[in-house]
Request: fold
Amino acid sequence: MDRITLPLPSTAKVVVIGLGYVGLPLAMAFTKKFRVLGYDISSQRVDDLKQGIDVTNEFSASELELSDIEFSSNSKEISNADFYIITVPTPVNKDLIPDLSMLISASKLVGQNVKQGNFVIYESTVYPGATEEVCLPVLEKYSGLKLNEDFFLGYSPERINPSDKIHKLDNIIKVVSGSNDYASKIVDALYSSIISAGTYLVNSIKVAEAAKVIENTQRDLNIALINEFAKIFSKLDLDTEDVLKAAETKWNFLSFRPGLVGGHCIGVDPYYLTYKSQQVGYNPQVILSGREINDGMASFISDIFLSKLKKIATPINQAKVLILGYSFKENCNDMRNTKVHDLALDLKTKVQEVAVFDPVIDTLAASQVNDIDFISSPEYKYYDGIILAVAHNNFKELGADGIRSFCKEGGIIYDLKHLLPADKVDLRL
Reply:
């Protein structure tokens, strides 16, 4: 068999499947070294990118224009590649069970195109074992090829942090793995060519899968602990931020803050680990307890807010509420699994009006979200209460006085992100 040898030739072709927050940065990085085709099932996404429009705001029109990436939504155009890199989403369903349907579909597509000597590399977050137990059989079925005889497998978990201008793809160490020693070396060489921070080669695909899923599980649990602290301190009439700042004077106290835990990773990935854990007969009590705490924060925040609001808005079912921010994190338009959504829905059942204002998100995408009333700008002196849910720079620039101007006389501000001075708000998480 013809094998790609080290160093990798510049003529090698890389096909990236999925052009979201993970796939597009990868494609942009690889195009500096290799021929690249970026494939996405969404023709709209592909058309936008061809026109220099990146709705994720990771790349400018000029950056896209200067790249040599070929964009396509035509599945017939992904053949004749050397490397296939799959970066499709791996969410959970309404029952919090891993949804691998997009991963399976992508594996089928690649299986229909993979050739002798090719490499198929997965970046999507999965539970340990999923790449070889779920994806590999699909690849072999639709290709008629055998692993490590005809083609090779790799796994390199994504570590993309949307909107983060400091921790970028090239300066974050990349964990890499392969289906055998040869595959591992090739996958390592591939990523080493674009990752200035270097790579970390592990001895199995399963180790790489597990490393990824525990990264976010650990962060989830740390935040859950702080959220539980916040619940306790609310009963004790203590300001959580005051307590945390005091505790942080000890050198080994870890710095986390309470809040809504959403997004495509932290609020999802732990369920991949707990799902697999339960499959093999172990009930992960700590992880699930942490998830329960974090998933319940929207309801907790709503209750605290309404108890305060009742003192100035009577009856409460006629109150008007403004939520500032909708995306799952600050200065980012990513709305996937945002828990602000849960907060808004909870409040809508108890007050007359809930308006959501977020100048960062894509308004067209937001308009497709059901049951949420997005507004283009808040009304002045109109709202009985305001919840500052996301710490966008836009809101920081408004300042306490600017945000207060949207309140009726005597209205309240609940600052979930400690963005404003404590003496300028009525409640802090």
